[in-house]
Every structure is written in structure tokens, then in C-alpha cells.
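Re: [help] complex structure
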Amino acid sequence: MDRNQISKWLKNPAKMANKYSFHVVYFCTGCGIIEIPPSITTRWDAERFGIIPVATPRQANLFLITGYVSTKTLKAIIRTYEQMPEPKYTVAFGSCPINGGMYYDSYNTIKSLDKFIPVDGYIAGCMPRPEAIFIGVTHLWKLIDMDKADGYKRYREDYEFYRENQEQLFGELDWPPLFQNKES
Amino acid sequence: MEKLKKNILANFRDIEIYTRQDNRIFINTKKETVLSLLSYLKNTGYDHLALVSCNDWIDDGEFELVYILSVYMEKDEEYQGKEKTNIIIKTRIVREEAKFITVIDIFENAEPYERELHEMFGIKFEGHPRLTTLFLELEYEIPPFRKDFDTDKYVENKYGQIPTIKERKSNKRNERT
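Output below.
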């Protein structure tokens, strides 16, 4: 263990433990999923950074969205995100979730993902190499230290707006709201 | 290949055969002859429907349906050891209220292709058991692969109108005050 971090561990052990053990659910959308097998296996061994892939969103706290998001996958992404226990973090790969990227005029691709679910960070590149993924993860550690990776808090707080956006795209959603509306 | 060409020409009228590459035979035909041509070619050994595709010729007001047939070489003695030959059948249908007859009775694997064409081009295949959506989630007024579908305008109307969370928040604040 790094001795410099002992004070941090004593101050807030839960946060430190959370931060160094990312259980990842990979959403296999777009081209970024090709980068995942080398980065989790021996070549770029992701377990050095405490990243381990898990089978279900119920066990995960980091959500990697690897590439463009079509309307059909967005529905699945929202449901997956809502199933994950808090605290949860979302990281999107490449330029497509930011503004559509090369699919800017596609009839079936979401242009910016953070209108529908909160995104804590973006990794630039088309596609990012595995090194960039690890840089992104170490950057996420810093954000968690500074309490700036607050996507799940924003989702709880502004849920009505996110839900309104989701309903504007899909019409009626076939699942009940995750949080009750706050009294306004 | 020449023999096959002669056979087809002998059996069908009003068709046009030409080869552009060594192993591809193109057949232009009227829409009435497609079914009989497909069943004839299936019996001669071309028993694999590789693709059903469509082109949108908006200036002519027509859709061009393309059926690509190929052959499993083990079955056909004539083609053993030779290069694989594809037969490409093209036919044209009217673009407005586009409809055609299904070929599921001859090739069962045409089902997903025809569903896709129905979804993307709005061609109605009569006799198809379930013409439901295959890939798309949203509903489109004009099917998205047609030439007159304006993607830029659609994107601006559909995705550009969705406000960011910040805008929604400030809108609500303005409403209250």
C-alpha cells in the first residue's frame, strides 16, 4: 500500500476501497468493445488498477459505454444503469457519445448521451487505446477523491428531467420511474 | 455457364442476360417472372438465396429488387472444381404504394431480408407471415433508407429538440417565477 495514502484511508476507508475496486459492466455497443479483451487480459492486465469485469449490473459500480449508442441500445443502457447499486460511475468512450461523432447525421443514433444518463467522464480517441482507458480510470480516481464524480447524485437529484428527456425520445417508457418525483 | 444462359433464355421470355465479371450472371426481368425464375434456378442447383436487396431509383419512381443466388458446389457436378457462380436477378416495382409478393415459399431464409426491406424501404410483401420491425426502435414517417428521407432535417427535429438537463432546469425555474 502506498504510504502517502494512509491518511486518506483513515479518513474515508469506504471511499478508498470503492475507488480501488472497480467492478465493471461493459456495454458492448459500437467498436470500443474490441479494445476490452486485450485490456482485461494479460497484455494490459486491467487488474493492476483494480478493474475486474463482472457478469451483471447488480454487482458493478463502473459502467463503460464503448462507442456509439443507437436508440435501441439506449433503452437497455438506461435499464442497466438504473439497476446498478450506488455509488456508480459512468465512463463513455470515443467521440460518438459526446456529440454523435461520425454518426452526426444518423437517423438512429443518439447524439449526446448525457442528455439521458449522467456521464462522469469521457475518454477521447476513436477508439481509445487500452493505455487511454487506464489514464481515464486514474483520472476518475482523482475525481472521486475530490467528490466530483457525482453522476449518480445528479441522477437522483434531476431524475425528473432525465426521465422527461427519455420520454421525449421514446414516447411512453414501459418501466416505472426509479425515484419518486420530489415535491415541488 | 454458357449452357445455363442458353437454358434460361430458352425457358423464359422478356429477360435480359449479361455478365459483367467472370462469375456473375445478371438477369433483368419483369416482376411477373421473378417467382418462376427463382423456382427454376432452385431446381437447377442454385439453392442458396444469399441476399435480397433493394435500390431506390427515385427519378424513375421505381424500386429495384435484387435477388442474389449462389450455389453450394458439392451438390452440383457441373460446377465442381470451378469458380463459384452467382446469379443476380433484378426486377423493378412501382415506388408509390410499393408491394411485391413474398418468396418465402421458395426460399425460407428470405424472411428476415423481406422484413428488413419492409422496415427500411416500406415495401409490403404480400403473404409474409410477420412484417414487424426488425432493427429499429422508433417509428418513422418515411422509411429511413428511401432517398427522400432527409437525415439532416430528421436529426435536427428529433435529437436536436431534446434539451440538455441544464436547459430543462432553467426552463423550470423560469416557469416558477
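Residues 3-170 of chain A form a domain with the Rossmann fold fold (CATH 3.40.50.12280).
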